[in-house]
Write a structure and sequence with these properties.
The protein is an alpha/beta fold and about 500 residues long. Helices cover about 30% and strands about 25% of the residues. The strands form three sheets. A nine-stranded mixed β-sheet has the order 9-8-7-6-2-3-1-10-11. The chain has an eight-stranded mixed β-sheet with strand order 14-13-12-15-16-17-18-19, with helices on both faces.
């Protein structure tokens, strides 16, 4: 198998594991990780969901054929749990050293003795083992089709960093030591090095919604040098989009036809107008001719469309429906993909027509409790979700819509305020320019007061997306269904 194998773990869970493995005594310690899995043509990702710490002298004891070993009781209990929860069983221990690590011959022999049986117990696993040094990790992964080595681990927090079995080119080389591979990105490399630029070229990023805010993110990511963008939107360009969507031309909205007083010509113009994702692809290709670009005309609430994003490295949500928030939040937590939701709001009083508190929102969402979960912050109201599932006639009958023909105010400069912070967050996270202790809180900017508010993180212990509840989707990957609408029967 030529597919790379990646192990993804969120920063709080990694810290818990790291503190257990390296308490400062220089000795060996053990644990087991229960993990979800996702497999796509891009590779296999194991997704850390829970860590079971082995107690020294009780669960992790002197071995008969090696230095230390997990007890049979501990292995049976945790592997049984993994089988019940349909999760992968990954044993963990540590060695000495710092930047390089590998399994000992005793380690590998123990895998050969035990893992065929564990594959049966966990109904095909995969099962496997990780061995850590302080700044390195190696893996031996067993599947029904063979045995494979781990390529790297990704740790997801305010820094998104990779850990390898042995030293690799750093994610951020010193700017003064940079050798710029592509002179077009010389000014970028002076900030985060040519290796940092290479990071962007290897990323796959999803953008949901290519309207005003999404179109800005699309162009900026393309100019930043991101190698692969998946853009999703079902809508077409119309006349009122021209001042707000980057790169649109009058002919994209077929203004000659849509402004005609003849109804059938207006209808023809709407039918011939450009898809927003196709405009976005044109803009991206102009900025970066070598970019791989998937322009998807579709709705994120459809499962086949949402599945296109399960192996992305980052997600941006720039659509304003509650259903898109629901699916985005699920993707972040179920597949351990960091993301950011953006938006802008210009409230207008229906009676006085006075403009209220204009604000923009930039909401990072990281896949763990207190990481910005949209459910926990009450940003996916059930009533609004129900409203969106109704037809226009049903909404009118239930009085959800009072003035359905009145569009919401929107200005490109407000979109800029929310989008620029989102893309800067993305850039700083991958180039390790944020300090590890930085908290990426939801940020609201109130334009009329020139005031910025950082929202305190929240978490619900029973949340079905971000919590450790046995019912939550967090880190379950392909073995849990996304909250998408069912396909229409043929």
């Amino acid at each position: 198998m030529n597919k790379p194998i990646e192990f993804r773990i969120d920063a709080p869970l990694f810290k818990k594991l790291d503190n257990h493995l390296f308490p400062g005594d220089g000795d060996e310690h053990g644990a087991v990780i229960a993990a979800g899995i996702v497999e796509t043509p891009r590779g296999i990702r194991l997704l850390a969901r829970e860590v079971f710490l082995a107690r020294d002298g009780i669960d992790y004891v002197p071995g008969t054929r090696g230095y230390r070993a997990l007890t049979a009781k501990f292995v049976a209990e945790v592997s049984g749990y993994c089988a019940e929860q349909n999760l992968c069983y990954i044993a963990v221990h540590c060695h000495g050293g710092r930047d390089e690590v590998c399994f000992s011959s005793d380690d590998l022999a123990s895998h050969e003795r035990g893992y065929p049986a564990l594959l049966d117990i966990t109904r095909g696993g995969p099962v496997g083992a990780l061995v850590f040094a302080k700044n390195a990790v190696a893996g031996d992964i067993w599947t029904p089709s063979g045995r494979f080595q781990l390529d790297y681990m990704t740790i997801i927090g305010s820094q998104i960093r990779r850990v390898y079995p042995s030293p690799q080119p750093r994610w951020r080389s010193p700017p003064q030591a940079s050798r710029v591979a592509n002179p077009m990105y010389d000014r970028h490399a002076r900030m985060f090095g040519d290796v940092g630029q290479e990071i962007f070229s290897n990323l796959k990023v999803g953008i949901i919604g290519l309207g005003g805010g999404g179109s800005l993110i699309n162009e900026w990511l393309s100019r930043l040098g991101v190698g692969h963008i998946v853009a999703i939107d079902f809508d077409r360009v119309e006349l009122t989009n021209l001042p707000r969507i980057v790169g649109t031309k009058p002919w994209d909205a077929m203004t000659t036809l849509t402004k005609s007083p003849i109804p059938w010509l207006q209808k023809l113009g709407k039918w011939l107008s450009a898809d927003k994702v196709h405009v976005a692809r044109r803009v991206a290709k102009q900025a970066n001719p070598s970019i791989r670009y998937d322009a998807v005309v579709g709705n994120i609430v459809d499962e086949a469309i949402a599945k296109l994003l399960v192996d992305t490295d980052f997600l941006f949500l720039a659509a304003d429906s509650m259903q898109s928030r629901l699916v985005f939040n699920a993707l972040v937590h179920q597949y351990l993909i960091p993301g950011i939701q953006i938006g802008a709001k210009v409230p207008v009083d229906k009676l006085s027509k006075q403009v209220g508190d204009i604000f923009t929102a930039t909401r990072p969402v990281l896949p763990y409790a207190y990481g910005g979960c949209l459910h926990c912050h009450e940003l996916i109201p059930p009533g609004r979700l129900q409203q969106e599932t109704l037809s226009e006639e049903e909404r009118r009958n239930q009085r959800y819509v009072e003035d359905e023909d009145i569009a919401q105010p929107s200005v490109i400069t407000l979109n800029v305020k929310s989008a620029e912070q989102a893309v800067n967050d993305f850039m700083m996270m991958f180039t390790l320019l944020y300090e590890p202790e930085v908290q990426l809180r939801h940020q609201l900017r109130f334009a009329r007061e020139r005031n910025v508010i950082n929202v305190e993180p929240r978490a619900n212990k029973d949340c079905l997306d971000c919590s450790d509840s046995s019912r939550s989707r967090r880190a379950r990957g392909d073995r849990y269904r996304l909250p998408c609408r069912l396909p229409k029967s043929l």
